[in-house]
Amino acid sequence: MDHSHARKLAAELAGTTILCLFGISAAVSVVAAGNESSGLLIVALAHGLALAVGIYAFGGVSGAHFNPTVTIALAVSGRLSWREVPGYVTAQLFGGVLAAYLASLIHGQQAIDAGLGATSFGAGVSVTQAVVAEALGAFLLVTAVFALAVSPSAPRGVHGLGIGLALATQILAFGPVAGASVNLARTFGPDVVLTFGGGAVSWAQLPVYIVAPVFGGVLAAGLYSAVNALSRVRESVASSSS
């Protein structure tokens, strides 16, 4: 492994840890404080702002994916080599586990009792509902990534806040459905730590958090690429006829 690739993986590990640690800790704090009325907003803002900080800190090193969904969407669209995907995803999953472990150290048994902010289906939520919610949430997030970080015409300097806002928005919209994870690292980390810490884990639901976000993210990448390709064709035709 060359030095450049190692730096990218370290950045993905650090950024994913930041995102998941502050998101998990916010969820644990909300449960511990019994602050149900504004809890969803607090959790959404914590995730969104932590993601923004991570993007500004590590975007120049690794691209600041911090999420297997984003990594796979970029690879499918040809903007990331598939050879880099396994390393990125592994670093992200380790970051999720490390974040959950750190949250359990910081908050103690209170974190385990609060479920470590683990994502799971809401009461009465079907698999179909969870799949649609996770896919649409990932669609919004990846659309923001492509529009604000990938597009050459994106406004400078706002990508971190814009992408963080997209993450927060889908949490506000879909959080009560299935946790609005849209990120396997965010789901996998708490599940692993809870398993060893004696907490309740819904491992049977994990396939939804693997498949649905990737589907939504790839759909967003494909649609974005198709729309932009069509736009370039129209511009080319217009310039040829003038």
From TrEMBL:
Belongs to the MIP/aquaporin (TC 1.A.8) family. The chain crosses the membrane at residues 12-34, 40-64, 85-107, 127-149, 161-186, 206-227. The lineage of its organism: Bacteria, Bacillati, Actinomycetota, Actinomycetes, Pseudonocardiales. This is Aquaporin family protein. Keywords: Cell membrane, Membrane, Transmembrane, Transmembrane helix, Transport. SUPFAM superfamilies: Aquaporin-like. Pfam families: MIP. GO terms for cellular component: plasma membrane. It comes from Lentzea tibetensis.
